[in-house]
Amino acid sequence: MDEEQQIKQKVNEQFSKNAEKYVTSDSHAKGGDLSLLVEWLQPEPHWIALDIATGGGHVAKTLSPHVAHVFSTDLTKQMLANTARHLNQSCKNIWYVLADAESLPFLDHTFDIVTCRIAPHHFPNPRKFVSEVERVLKPHGKFLLIDNVVPDKPELAEFMNTLEKLRDESHVRCLSVKEWKDLFNLSNLIEIKSLIRKKTFQFPGWVERTAGSREQIDRVKQYICDASEEIHQYFSVVIENEEIQSLQVDEWMVLSERP
């Protein structure tokens, strides 16, 4: 098994165990970015949408009333099945498909909209992912990406990715905004608008969602506590009574178009 296959197996294991947590997670289910999705995309009733790495299905659910069909895909069967159980009663135009984000099982020029939210940091080959998005989009189709991004400063970027890997073994790497823009350029996707914001994680729920043991949680806590004052300030780490309460990361939302 090569490295990419090993990564995807780890993703499968992690999300199979935690499928229900991603449906109910506040940062996934109630993010302010969801309210901007429809405003930015301006979907039309006859459009067909693809949501890649759908997780708890929050984007698919948001788009469902505004388009003809949503194809909701995920690498993890248990995650997809759990999401379908939650959405089947209220959303009749969502279709659930097992799919690898880096090798999509769809024909060229199939979709008017492609979305992917809070997932690409689990992908071993983001370049393949962006290339596949471009391939399945219709001419003038829209791609909306939302994911955590690292700062440009190497020390801050290393801290964020190391922290995420300690918390979640299926984490691969958060890219910087510049890296994402370079990948868009390679696939000839034209940026229309973007927004970067600070996203707050309430530490106990955030770390417990993916950590498999008390020892793992303690390692994450220690890594944060040992970090420099500059890191604590950048990520707005809040510690009260020697307990970590919250921290913030950068999240980038970008809308692009296939020419």
From TrEMBL:
Keyword tags: Methyltransferase, Transferase
Organism: Effusibacillus lacus
Domain Methyltransferase type, chain residue ranges per copy: 50-144
Family, as annotated: Belongs to the methyltransferase superfamily.
SUPFAM superfamilies noted in UniProt: S-adenosyl-L-methionine-dependent methyltransferases
GO aspect biological process, one term: methylation
Protein name per its UniProtKB record: Methylase
An example molecular function term from Gene Ontology annotations: S-adenosylmethionine-dependent methyltransferase activity
CDD domains xref list: AdoMet_MTases
Domain of life: Bacteria
InterPro entries recorded: Diverse_substrate_MTase, Methyltransf_11, SAM-dependent_MTases_sf
